[in-house]
Each structure stands twice: as structure tokens, then as C-alpha cells.
Predict the structure.
Amino acid sequence: MLCSLLMLGGLPLAHAEHEGFGFTFEADLEYGGDDLATFEFTDGSTQDIKTGQGITAALGGHYRATGSPFSVRGTVGYKYVTTKASNADISIGRTVLELAGNYLWDNGWWVGAGITHHSGIKYDADGFGPDVDFDDATGPTLEVGWRWIALTYTDLDYKDEFGGEWDASSVGLKLTTKF
């Protein structure tokens, strides 16, 4: 399913092969951070909701000067995680802004570094506990990839409305198409 999303109606999966200005679509699957809540289900299983966990879909733009191994991209997206509960929508949602620079080698490998900003961070317990709002959070992000796939690390801390601090750092897998 994720691969079909990235094909965007026949657009090829690619990374920084394009020169000049273009558009970017990204899908990230991330895991990590502190346990915000643990839920026990009627079948006896449990599930943790982690502050850095989620799936992000993002759109944006990129630029690479002709002949340069350097590129820059900016995206805006939405990161979301929910539980497997069938009778509730317990979730964390947030808007994600990212600006990153990349260095691309001729063999398709690349590295990137940039800054990520999360805003509108909200934990919705759907009546099974208190809802919690978090302050905006900004932190660095690092990437190492080959063509359209990358491993990522993002270092973030969330501060909740009650003054509590939460590690929202994550490791992830990023899929990118540029056109």
C-alpha cells in the first residue's frame, strides 16, 4: 500500500536525481519516544502509545542546482498514531514541518541533515483518560539513504500542558518520491 502511495499515478520512486525545482512526496514510519499510555484489551493484549511513534505523509518542494551534489527540500505533513481499539479513536496527531539539506553521491547513496518542527501536538484519549496538549517542539533530524529509501533519526522533546517533559525522539524509515 505504501509503495502504491509513492507511485502517485505512475510517478517513479526517486530521490535527488532531479535538478532544479520540483515537488516531493514523503511517507515516514517512525518508532520511539516515551510511553505516553498503555492500553489493555479484552483479549488480554496490551499496546503502548509512544510519543515519537507514527506514520507521516508529507508534501513539499526541493531544489538542486545543475551539476551540484547538494540539494535542499522542505515539506509539511501530518504524523498520526492510533491504537488497535475498535471502540475508540485513541491517538496522537501533529503537523510536521521539515527543512533538510542532502548530499548525493553518483551511486545513489545520500546523507541528509535538517530541522523538524512539530506543532498542534494533541493526545486524544477518547474518554478513556485525559486529553493532553503539548507545546510545539523543534529538533534536528538525520538521514542516510539510497535512492528513494532512508533510515532517519529525529531528536525531539515534548512539553505537555501540565509542565511534564517527554522524549519524542524516533528512528524511522522514509520513502521519498521527487518529481
User: Anything to note?
Assistant: The two ends are 20 Å apart (CA to CA). The helical segments are 2-7.
